[in-house]
TrEMBL record, chain A:
<keyword id="KW-0853">WD repeat</keyword>
<dbReference type="InterPro" id="IPR015943">
    <property type="entry name" value="WD40/YVTN_repeat-like_dom_sf"/>
</dbReference>
<comment type="similarity">
    <text>Belongs to the phosphatase 2A regulatory subunit B family.</text>
</comment>
<comment type="subunit">
    <text>PP2A consists of a common heterodimeric core enzyme, composed of a 36 kDa catalytic subunit (subunit C) and a 65 kDa constant regulatory subunit (PR65 or subunit A), that associates with a variety of regulatory subunits.</text>
</comment>
<dbReference type="GO" id="GO:0019888">
    <property type="term" value="F:protein phosphatase regulator activity"/>
</dbReference>
<dbReference type="InterPro" id="IPR018067">
    <property type="entry name" value="PP2A_PR55_CS"/>
</dbReference>
<dbReference type="GO" id="GO:0000159">
    <property type="term" value="C:protein phosphatase type 2A complex"/>
</dbReference>
<protein>
    <recommendedName>
        <fullName>Serine/threonine-protein phosphatase 2A 55 kDa regulatory subunit B</fullName>
    </recommendedName>
</protein>
<keyword id="KW-0677">Repeat</keyword>
TrEMBL record, chain B:
<feature type="compositionally biased region" description="Polar residues">
    <location>
        <begin position="149"/>
        <end position="163"/>
    </location>
</feature>
<feature type="compositionally biased region" description="Polar residues">
    <location>
        <begin position="82"/>
        <end position="92"/>
    </location>
</feature>
<feature type="region of interest" description="Disordered">
    <location>
        <begin position="115"/>
        <end position="245"/>
    </location>
</feature>
<feature type="region of interest" description="Disordered">
    <location>
        <begin position="74"/>
        <end position="100"/>
    </location>
</feature>
<feature type="compositionally biased region" description="Basic and acidic residues">
    <location>
        <begin position="115"/>
        <end position="126"/>
    </location>
</feature>
<dbReference type="InterPro" id="IPR008653">
    <property type="entry name" value="IER"/>
</dbReference>
<feature type="compositionally biased region" description="Polar residues">
    <location>
        <begin position="171"/>
        <end position="185"/>
    </location>
</feature>
<feature type="region of interest" description="Disordered">
    <location>
        <begin position="260"/>
        <end position="281"/>
    </location>
</feature>
<comment type="similarity">
    <text>Belongs to the IER family.</text>
</comment>
Length: 447, 301
């Protein structure tokens, strides 16, 4: 695939599709809370605050238009989680889907894990395009025939039918987390997966729902001494014994499950010393890591904190190898962002298929791409205005001071209610899915 | 100065967030509240540093007076409530901004003085904390510094660490001077008024305490105060006094439903992990048990 990020590079991003209501009045349940491509990129899953999962499937490339990649159309929709009430603690458990992770495909059916704050579910999505017809004892509509009227016997045969996609919950992994689950990650061994909440990480076997192993526990004996929480966790893409977890203090710990049963002792600690000149009331908040993602190669990992994206080489713990500023102009506005709670937004980040470009979201429905090789970055916008089919996205620029040029947007005009927290990149092609509040935009490179 | 106003504002906002988090759907979010409490602590450190900056200054002035021949006037200045004296000193104008402050400053002054015995155990508290404002936030030495005042509890966490952390070390810096002052005054001055000053201050502090607390909080404070004093934990007293200056902002945040807040506060104070968020009975004893505001906040999770 072409290296892509935009700028001087040859990739130009075009609008492809937008999913979701056009209505400006956003229903809370429709707010998209997670976006994930499956391993082949054929399926794209989204989860929302209402506990629903919507899966889009890419149409096969039409032979008539070989230059056009297939469109994504709704494949399956189901209610994954329902609101619950914990009677013991008098707490309501939100049905919002926090994360979706696909399992590698092993047979005709697709499997994915979806989780809310407390419960993880394994869903099987399977197709049915044939049905048996010609029973001896049943009519076509299902009514039973009177056996005395049966005079001949026939063998039922499968007849084609309209495609039906069924989603069924195969496993429910419940009651293992006291705190809110923030991450799930499937192991490369395809047999286990981890789930992480604020203070603990559990290891599950996909087949076994009534028990899990606790592999990380950072809960202090005395809760008064709590200083940090776990914010994200992920298994290494190739090494089934390795996983990382990030903390609210801006550190990442890499753990090896072979070392001990309880991985409280990290194998590696990735931390960059804080720049004292940037010290403010909000230093702790903006250093909290909101997402951590391994590169496809497994050599690097990327972390996202409030203002920047950092690429770490797993072999170097002292500092990141690359740092990209996402929206440094917000540094002077931290107090206002604290007041309106925007400073607590958890932005995600993602790699492209060959690890040459990384992407993350920002405010005003902007999202940013950083090309690691060409050292270029571009800011694009997901908006209805630039939603004409195959229209090329124009790079955007935020004016940080001085005279505002034409087409630039000043920091004060940014709409902080329009934020892009969730983005996903197709594992092979230059197709990206960008979630605004309640819409899913799909962009692809101009072929 | 601007820092203090800013810090105060941030503290108020943080309190509001912590309060609102209790009514949010999905339960209390540990991560967000942890971050908010860290901000609260930073702001409080800056706020107190400025406070103590003012106290140090006034204490220094006082020392000079002690050594000088203006004992009587000094005494007047040290008498709580007489705000006129304060503005006369350099840099104290900023301390006297809030009309509550002068009395608090003086009370703290006395508190600091009385607190010398507590200083020892504060030595290990974050000494470097104040050096650069809100620099390194260390783990609060919570068990030792736990205001019992309900105001602080409400603010609880407000204060959360803020109270447990810096305050103990704050006085450390400022304590030097007042004590020196006392020593000097005692040695130099035969004026019978001198030695009384601290006592007066102390007594005055307590009464001011009661009055302020009573003004701000219904009923309960009255129950709290005697207990507070009986415990004779000057750290608490002092930090609680720091908090009373925030009461006005607290009140604006929480409106008049202090009791309501306390009940929901209590409701969110389980003994162990996020259990029992029943809005139980507000019991002063229960509040006393959860002295450490940090614990009340975190344990709630």
């Amino acid at each position: 695939m072409a290296g892509a990020g935009g700028g001087g590079n040859d990739v130009q991003w075009c609008f492809s599709q937008v999913k979701g209501a056009i209505d400006d009045d956003v229903a809370e349940a429709d707010i998209i809370s997670t976006v994930e491509f499956n391993h082949s990129g054929e399926l794209l899953a989204t989860g929302d605050k209402g506990g629903r999962v919507v899966i889009f499937q890419q149409e096969l490339e039409s032979k008539n238009q070989p230059q056009c990649r297939g469109e994504y159309n709704v494949y399956s929709t189901f209610q994954s989680h329902e609101p619950e009430f914990d009677y013991l603690k008098s707490l309501e458990i939100e049905e919002k889907i926090n994360k979706i992770r696909w399992l590698p495909q092993k047979n005709a059916a697709q499997f994915l894990l979806s989780t809310n704050d407390k419960t993880i579910k394994l869903w099987k999505i399977s197709e049915r395009d044939k049905r048996p017809e010609g029973y001896n004892l049943k009519e076509e509509d299902g009514r039973y025939r009177d056996p005395t009227t049966v005079t001949t016997l026939r063998v039922p045969v499968f007849q084609p039918m309209d495609l039906m996609v069924e989603a069924s919950p195969r496993r429910v992994f419940a009651n293992a987390h006291t705190y809110h689950i923030n991450s799930i990650s499937v192991n490369s061994d395809c047999e286990t997966y981890l789930s992480a909440d604020d203070l603990r990480i559990n290891l599950w076997n996909l087949e076994i729902t009534d028990r899990s192993f606790n592999i990380v526990d950072i809960k202090p004996v005395n809760m008064e001494e709590l200083t940090e929480v776990i914010t994200a966790a992920e298994f290494h893409p190739n090494q089934c014994n390795t996983f990382v977890y990030s903390s609210s203090k801006g550190t990442i710990r890499l753990c090896d499950m072979r070392a001990s049963a309880l991985c409280d002792q990290h194998s590696k600690l990735f931390e960059e010393p804080e720049d004292p000149s940037n010290r403010s009331f909000f230093s702790e908040i903006i250093s909290s890591i909101s997402d951590v993602k391994f590169s496809h190669s497994g050599r690097y990992m990327m972390t996202r904190d409030y203002l920047s994206v950092k690429i770490w080489d797993l072999n170097m713990e002292s500092r990141p190898v690359e740092t990209y500023q996402v929206h440094e102009y917000l540094r002077s506005k931290l107090c206002s962002l604290y007041e309106n709670d925007c400073i607590f937004d958890k932005f995600e980040c993602c790699w492209n298929g060959n690890d040459s470009v990384v992407m993350t979201g920002s405010y005003n429905n902007f999202f940013r791409m950083f090309d690691r090789g060409y050292r270029q970055d571009v800011t694009l916008e997901a908006s209805r205005e630039s939603s004409k089919p195959r229209s090329v996205l124009k790079p955007r620029k935020v004016c940080t001071g001085g005279k505002r040029k034409k087409d630039e947007i000043s920091v004060d005009s940014l709409d902080f209610n329009k934020k892009i927290l969730h983005t996903a990149w197709h594992p092979q092609d230059n197709i990206i899915a960008v979630a605004t509040t309640n819409n899913l935009y799909i962009f692809q490179d101009k072929l | 100065m601007e820092y203090k106003v800013e810090a105060h504002r941030i503290m108020s906002i943080s309190l509001g967030k912590i309060y609102n988090s209790r009514v949010q759907r999905g339960g209390i979010k540990l991560h967000k509240n942890l971050l908010v409490s860290l901000v609260l602590r930073s702001a409080r450190q800056v706020y107190l540093r400025d406070y103590y900056g003012g106290i140090c200054l006034s204490a220094q002035q006082a020392r000079e007076w002690c050594e000088g021949e203006y004992m009587d006037s000094e005494q007047d200045r040290l008498v709580p409530g007489s705000t006129e004296s304060l503005p006369e000193s350099d840099g104290q104008s900023e301390v006297a901004v809030d009309k509550q402050e002068p009395s608090i400053v003086v009370e703290s002054h006395a508190a600091l003085d009385v607190e010398s015995e507590a200083r020892g155990e504060q030595d290990h508290a974050e000494n470097g904390v104040l050096d650069s404002g809100c620099s390194e936030l260390k783990t609060p030495e919570s068990p030792e510094a736990s205001p019992t005042c309900e105001v602080s509890n409400v603010v609880t966490t407000i204060s959360s660490n803020c109270i447990s952390g810096p305050p103990p070390s704050n006085p450390k810096q400022a304590t030097e001077t007042p004590n020196d002052c006392q020593t000097d005054s005692e040695s130099v001055e035969e004026n019978s008024h001198e030695p009384i000053v601290p006592h007066t201050c102390t007594n005055r502090k307590r009464s001011a305490d009661d009055s302020e607390l009573t003004d701000s909080l219904p009923k309960r404070t009255k129950v709290m105060s005697p207990t507070l004093i009986s415990k004779n934990d000057e750290k608490k007293a002092e930090t609680e006094e720091m908090d009373t200056s925030n009461v006005s902002s607290l009140i604006t945040i929480f409106g008049s439903s202090f009791s309501g807040l306390l009940s929901s506060e209590d409701g969110a104070q389980p003994d162990s992990e996020a259990e029992d968020s029943d809005s139980g009975q507000i019991c002063c004893d229960q509040m006393l048990k959860n002295l450490n505001p940090w614990s009340t906040a975190i344990v709630a999770f």
